[in-house]
Amino acid sequence: MTRILLRLTVETDLPILFAQQLDPEAVALSAYPSKDRGEFMRHWEGILKNKNVTVRSILYKEKVAGHIICWKEKYEQRIGYWIGREFWRRGIASAAVADFLVLVKIRPLFAEVANHNLASKRVLEKNGFTVLDEGAKLTILKLS
Hints:
Elements: E1 5-8, H1 14-20, H2 24-30, H3 37-49, E2 54-60, E3 63-73, E4 76-83, H4 92-103, E5 109-114, H5 118-126, E6 130-134, E7 138-143
Parallel strand pairs: 4-5
Antiparallel strand pairs: 1-2, 2-3, 3-4, 5-7, 6-7
């Protein structure tokens, strides 16, 4: 298993996370548009202040490789993550989800994945998520 570290996300991580979400290839795989700097910083200011959100930066070889987050949306607890493209294909996402699921004990958990993002779907399935619904653009997965 790839060795990663999850630590509290801090303000100094935000420029790195901002740059990662601008990558056109990553945006295409995520099915979520990137944010401009102001919108991104306002969004993350809210995340970092919200005591009901669990968020961690993913460190790989002492570099911020991405982030992983759990939040409540309507009546469901959701999980999501973003890995910078330079860190893809190293097992970082799988390791981060596995470690995060030890930290976040809430079940059920839900995740959305763009249908064409087979790697992300596989990461979640390796960590026990099962397909709940395959829509036209997004697949919803659940961990009971």
